[in-house]
Specification:
Length: 85
């Protein structure tokens, strides 16, 4: 998470600013738990490199300035797939 919870969630999971709405972080946590993807929430994101602002992300990946995005993360407790058939 680059931006963490705001700290304004009510006891029932509703937003502090908009009491009629569920807190977005409450919904994210609930959905991640349902989909068995809590590992997404516990990842520590790297600090944004502002020197690369307004430059090509893919060019930065290909030149090694940044790491490529992880499009698919394995689910928690999912065994590694073997290369053997």
């Amino acid at each position: 998470m680059r931006n963490g919870p705001c700290g304004g969630t009510r006891e029932n999971g509703n937003c502090e600013v908009y009491p009629d709405r569920k807190c977005v972080w409450y919904r994210i946590h609930k959905r991640a738990r349902f989909l068995h993807r809590m590992n997404f929430l516990y990842r520590i994101e790297k600090v944004h490199n502002w020197n690369l602002e307004r430059t090509s992300a893919w060019l930065n990946v290909f030149t090694g300035r940044i790491e490529p995005p992880e499009l698919f993360l394995k689910k928690q407790n999912e065994p590694e797939k073997s290369d053997k058939i």
